[in-house]
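Q: Could you fold this chain for me?
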Amino acid sequence: MSRTFRRLPLALAFAAVLAAGLPVAASDAVAPASAVNATAGSAVDAAGLDAAALAAAAQLRDTAMAGSGAFAVVESLTTEVGPRLAGTEADARAVAWAEAKFRELGFDEVYLEPVTFNVWWRGHERAAVVGAFAQPLVLTALGGSIGTDGPLQAEVVAFPSLEALQAAPEGSLAGKIAFVNYRMERFRDGHGYSPASRIRGAGASEAAKKGAVALLIRSVGTDRDRLPHTGVMRYADGVARIPAAALSNPDADQLQRLVDRGAPVRVELDIAAETRGEYTSHNVIGEIRGRELPDEVVVIGGHLDSWDLGTGAIDDASGVGITMAAGRLIGQLPQRPRRTVRVIAFANEESGLFGGKAYAAARAAEDRIGDHQLVAESDFGAGRVYALRGGTEPAARPVLERIGAVLAPIGVAYESEGGGPGPDVSPIAALGAPWGQLAQDGTDYFDWHHTANDTLDKVEPAALDQQVAAYAVMAFLAAETTVDFGTIPVTPPAPSAPVKAN
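A: Sure. Below is the predicted structure, expressed as C-alpha cells.
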C-alpha cells in the first residue's frame, strides 16, 4: 500500500544521529539561505536534516573521492561478462553476476524481478558499393531491423535530414535505398542526440512510405572513427518493414562524395538480422534497508544490458558500477538511513526501456508509486557530474539545495530548473514519482556510444569516484530527510538530456 503524501514538521528532530562526533569541514558548513542552523543531535534544518546527517553525507563524499571501488565493479562486469545483448546467454550471465555482486558488496536484500521482451539477433552484416567505384562500406544493422533475406542491391538516393526524406514525393524511392546523411552535433549535455536519433528511430518507416527497399543512415555519433554506431529503431504499424543500418561516419562521408559526383551509385547490402521470439530476463535489485521507513525508497541504478558491439563500459556498466558503489558506501555507515536505498540493475534498456517499464508497472499494480521518495539513473557514461536537478514538490527544494551544498566542493552545482529523469526511471516518474538528475559531462560520450569502441579504457576511475560521491550523497540525504518529496505531475519532462532512451 502506498504511503500517504505529507510534509512532516520541519522542526521534527531525528530519533537518532548517524555519525555522532563526526566533524563538519568548513566547506560543508556553507548552506543555502533557506537553511536553518542546527546542532548535532538536536533540531533539523529547513531541509529536514541535522548536523550529524550532513556530516555523514560529507564523509560519504570524501570517502568516495578517495576511492569508491566503482571501477573494480565496472572492470568485473565488462571483463567477466563482456557484451550483454538483451536476451542472449550473456544477458543471463550478467543477471547472475549482478545478483552475486550485490551480495558481495553487502546489500541487506537482493532479489530479481522478471522482465519479458522479444529478442533481436544481429547475424552477419556486409555492404559494398558496386559498379565503377566498387568498394566495401562499414556499417552495422540497427537494433530491431529485419534482414535483407540475401544480398539486396539498389541505387542510393541521399537526403540531408529526416525532414527532407519526409518531403520526398510518394513512390519516388520505389526500388531504391534511402540514405539520410545527418551529422550529430557535439554538446556537453548531449542534446544533439535527440534530432539524430529520431532519424534512426523513424527513418525506416518514413523511407518505406516513399517506396524504398532499405535505409542507410549516418551513425548517430560525434566521432570520426571507422566504427558504426548501432541503436534501436522502430517500425510504424501498417507500413512495410525494410532493413535499416548505420554507416560509420567516414563511410557516410565517402558514400556522399560518390553520390555528389552525379552518376547513379548502387550499393549491395547483406544483413541477416532477425527477431527470435520472447525471452524473460530480470531486473536485479539490491537494497540497503531503511531504519524507520523501510517501505519508502530512494531508487538509483543503471542498466545491465548493452549492445553487442563493445563491452558496454560507458553504456552502461559505468552506471551499474557507480550506483552499486554508492549503495555499498551508504550501507557501511554506522547507521542505516531512515528510508531504504534501492539500487537497480535494469534489464534491456537498449531495446526500449523494458526493465524500467516493468518496474513501474509492478509498482503501479501494487499501488506503490507513492513509496518512492526519489528516483534517479546513471546512464550517460563515465564523465564527471556538474549539476544537480530535480523534479519534486516545492517542499523538497531545501533538501536539493542542501545536497548541492555538500556536493559543491567536488564541482556539482544545484540548478533549480531544467533536467529530467533518467531513461529507466522515466516510466515511474511519468506516474508521479519524484526524480533527481545528476547531469554528467557527455562531451565525448557519443564518440563511443553503441560502438565496438565502448570499452573499459574509456573509463577514468577518478571520474567514477566523483560520480559515486554525488550519487551517494544525493541518495543518502534524500533517504534521511524528514521532508517528504511528494508527487509530481504525471507528465514530467522527457528523459534527461540527451533523450538517451536507448
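A (continued): The two ends are 32 Å apart (CA to CA).
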